[in-house]
Structures are given as C-alpha cells and as structure tokens.
Design goal:
209 residues, 2 helices, 11 strands
Length: 209
C-alpha cells in the first residue's frame, strides 16, 4: 500500500495564446473528476453539511426516483456511498461498502455492478465483547485519494482484526498489503477499539478514527 504515506490514528503546457494555465485547485482533485464525492459529505471540515449548488429549490421540485436504478447487494450499509466522476469518456461510479466487507462500484445510471471486491470475512458478534452490528465489517465511510485513484477502506475482519485496505477506484484491484492496525499500533486492541467515524485524508496523512 506504499504504507499509505503516513497512517495516523486517534485511534506545463501553455495555452494557444501563450498564457500560463491557471493553478490547480486547492483540493487537488484532477481535471475531469470535479463532480466527485470523495469523502463523507465531501467536506474535510466534517461540518455535517453537504451543499450541491445544482440542487436548487426549482431543480429539486422536478426530481423523481429513478426506478431503473436497482443495485443488488448483500449486507447492511452504514457507510456513506461515494461518487467517482470518471471524466470525459470515463466510467462514473457509485461506490458502496457493506457490513459483509464487500466494496461494490455500481454504474450510477443502471445500477449494474462495474466491479466488486470482498476484503475479508467480517467479525461475528460472538468474537466481540459488545456491540449490536452482526456481522461487523465496514462501518466508517471510506475516502478516495483522487490523485492516485485509490480508495481507502477500514474494515473489521474475523479474528477479530482491524485492517486498512487500499483499492483501485477504477477496477477494485488491491494496492499493496492491508495494514493490520493491531500489529502496527502498540496498545491497539481490535476487539474493543472499533472504527465508526469516516476516514479522512489531509496532506498525505490518512486518519482513521
């Protein structure tokens, strides 16, 4: 996983007229994926507010449920789905993670699976001293590193063990070896230090609450 840069737990082309191109956006989202929702509420400040300028009162009044979008999945979904804008000619994706530790990328128009990846067997409640989610798999919302096109996912796996995975956004292929948090962080105990909050990435550091 190239060690995720750092893992922190709280727990020049010129234009035709000769002008220089504008500087890249401060959020480092590459051109072509500007509409992506890369993290919880698409807001690194964790304010709990997600604003889409296109969702005006007039526009919302004309919205209707798309009955042709019928994605198929197994297991409860606690994590917020994310959206990957594939850019011109690329594949847009709705990415969902479940308590079965399955990560699925759906076509946002049809609901058909584009790719899916089962990370590992989730932990049954019989392996845990407390909790009411059975089995316990992926709870916190993952985060996408748009520059590297990687999806980072924190999952509880049978053992119990807490692991952090990196997957290719485009095809779900694993990137590197998952990090076993209990082995990497002295004093961490997977059975009682569960992960629920959304993952965040700031200045190359992945935060897993």
């Amino acid at each position: 996983m190239r060690r995720l840069s750092t893992l922190a737990f709280v727990a020049v082309a010129c234009s035709k007229n000769g002008q220089q191109p504008p500087p890249p956006p401060s959020d480092h989202i590459p051109p072509g994926v500007r509409a992506a929702v890369l993290q919880h509420h698409n807001d690194a400040a964790r304010s709990g507010v997600y604003v889409d300028p296109a969702l005006t009162r007039a526009a919302v009044a004309n919205l209707r449920q798309d009955m042709s979008f019928v994605p198929q999945l197994t297991g409860a979904v606690y994590a917020q789905p994310l959206y990957w804008d594939g850019g011109d000619g690329g594949q847009d994706l709705v990415i969902v993670a479940t308590q079965q530790n399955e990560v699925i990328a759906f076509d946002p128009l049809s609901g058909a699976r584009v790719w899916s990846r089962t990370l590992a067997t989730p932990a049954p409640d019989s392996q845990l001293p407390c909790g009411n989610i059975n089995p316990l798999g992926t709870v916190g919302t993952p985060v996408i590193d748009a520059g590297r096109k990687l999806l980072f996912v924190a999952a509880m796996t049978s053992g119990p063990r807490h692991r952090v995975y990196a997957l290719s956004v485009t095809n779900g292929a694993p990137s590197g070896t998952p990090i076993d948090v209990e082995a990497a962080v002295p004093g961490f105990t997977s059975a009682v230090q569960n992960q629920r909050g959304a993952l965040a990435q700031v200045n190359g550091v992945l935060y897993v609450p």
